[in-house]
Specification:
The complex is a heterodimer.
Chain A lengths: L4 E3 L4 H10 L10 E5 L9 E5 L8 E9 L7 E3 L4 H9 L4 E7 L4 E7 L10 E3 L6 H14 L14
Parallel strand pairs in A: 4-6
Antiparallel strand pairs in A: 2-3, 3-4, 5-8, 6-7
Chain B lengths: L2 H23 L4 E5 L7 E6 L5 E11 L6 E5 H8 L5 E7 L4 E6 L4 H4 L6 E5 L1 E2 L2 H20 L1
Parallel strand pairs in B: 3-5
Antiparallel strand pairs in B: 1-2, 2-3, 4-7, 5-6, 6-8
The chains are: A alpha+beta, B alpha+beta.
């Protein structure tokens, strides 16, 4: 029997994101179940399902942006194009940018919702880091959105 | 998919990611995974000072419990890996606390677990910055031993 051998180096940023979203050091189980959509999917890298919501499979979409440039005292610089944000604004439901600082394996989240200007986003504030507290905030924000029936969120803690 | 399957998948996936990121942090020349698990989970290559690549196999195990000084693996897996011509490492990922532990698989470990027919305890070292530096030296030494043999 033979089996294909595949090099899994690369995509370090996405691996860090997946680990961070499933971190459950301070929870009984992970709050999220991320599914990678593959490189060919436009605008979106992950569909992220919320766990712990009986009878419902709520989710958000995320686009990952990685950098090796150290954060400043206030924010992580990321590189997006106007087209990235326009595409996220077109997608129904909550959509977020996840900025990854690869050397330190830190992840930061920023919402793209109704009211977000359709232009490139170049930074994410450091207090939007995906700490345990912010993971819980993110889970709550997404779970509160879906029952509204709206096309897309109009506000976010991570604006 | 049942909740148990989902939990097991999550635990396994976290261990995979922790292992892959760890070896990438050692500047591995490559970290390769078999599409279908055969003899081991990962094949890792690290560049050596002579310009070559030292290769070793890795068996990854996930746990959600605190890891003590050793970890039990099946005797069959231990035999297969410790008697192979490629150095083999056991990497245990505590996926709840984000901690990694490693131990080299060696034939003499079987003697210490003679009373148990089915499993062997492999001594482990927690991976911190100090252990990472020592591991780099061990890997270089493994490569030299293999060349000398």
């Amino acid at each position: 029997m033979t089996s294909e051998l595949r090099d899994v180096t690369g995509f370090r940023g996405e691996k860090i994101v997946e680990l961070r979203l499933t971190d459950y050091k301070t929870f009984p189980e992970p709050l999220f179940r991320p599914a990678h959509l593959g490189e060919k999917w436009p605008a979106i890298d992950y569909l992220v399902e919320l766990t712990s919501i009986p009878g419902r499979r709520l989710y958000f979409f995320a686009q990952v942006k990685s950098t090796t440039i150290a954060p400043s005292s206030r924010s992580l610089r990321i590189s997006t194009k106007k087209k990235d944000i326009e595409r996220l604004l077109q997608i129904p439901g909550p959509t977020y940018l996840l900025g990854v600082h690869e050397p330190s394996e830190r992840v930061f989240v920023r919402s793209v919702h109704i009211g977000t200007p359709a232009r490139a986003i170049t930074s994410i504030p450091l207090h939007y880091e995906l700490t345990a507290g912010n993971l819980k905030q993110l889970h709550g924000e997404v779970s509160r959105f879906w029952p509204t029936g709206h096309h897309k969120p109009t506000v976010s803690r991570f604006a | 998919m049942s909740a148990n399957n989902s939990q097991a998948q999550m635990v396994g996936r976290r261990a995979e990611l922790m292992a892959e990121l760890f070896f990438q942090s050692l500047d591995a020349a490559y970290v390769a995974r078999f599409e279908h698990a055969l003899a081991f989970d990962l094949l890792v290559g690290l560049s050596n000072p002579q310009g070559g690549i030292d290769n070793f196999a890795v068996e990854v195990k996930a746990t959600q419990q605190p890891v003590r000084s050793g970890f039990r693996i099946s005797r069959k897996i231990h035999e297969r890996l410790s008697h192979s011509n490629t150095p083999a490492m056991l990497l245990v990922a505590d996926v709840k606390q984000d901690r990694l532990y490693y131990g080299w698989l060696r034939p003499e470990q079987a003697a210490a677990s003679r009373s148990d027919r089915d499993t062997i305890v492999v001594p482990l070292t927690e991976i911190d910055e100090g252990a990472k530096a020592r591991l780099r030296e061990e890997l270089a030494a493994q490569g030299s031993e293999a060349m000398a043999a």
